[in-house]
Fold:
Amino acid sequence: MRHNERAGATRLHRLDRWLYRSGRPNRLARAINRAWATVFAAGVLQPDRLVTLRVPGRRTGRVISFPLVVADYQGERYLVAMLGQGTNWVHNLRAAGGRAVLRHGGDEAVRLNEVDPGSRAPILRRYLAVSPGGRAHIPVDPQAPLEDFEQIAAQYPIFHITPDRSAAPPAAGR
Structure:
């Protein structure tokens, strides 16, 4: 990577950290997330890894939409909470028993099962390889040895995506 590219990436990571400086999205980040959730859900962007997670809010029951990047690893798909355990969508998902909808052009009812912390390191490394936005929030170089990822893996919930053909998608809404 050339100097100008590194400087640009550093500025972008600083912006990402500022948008989520308290570990939660600030007002601007929430607006950006709403916009990206709409774009990702429409399925107009490729690759398929850009999705919108739709899950009922744990307090209101209102469907919450959030843009995420799917990490593929050994033929399976995963969602990673780049902001860690306190991430709102993680709390909502746990309250919903792991049932949610992924949108990328159409609805896919899914079951999201939390991955054991001992199995997260290689998935976390793959996530950083496919999600440049996550690099500002996960303090390990994407090229680092797996042992470095093992040291922090318990801090970042990861969910295995499986189809849920028994569930109807949540009602439309935001």
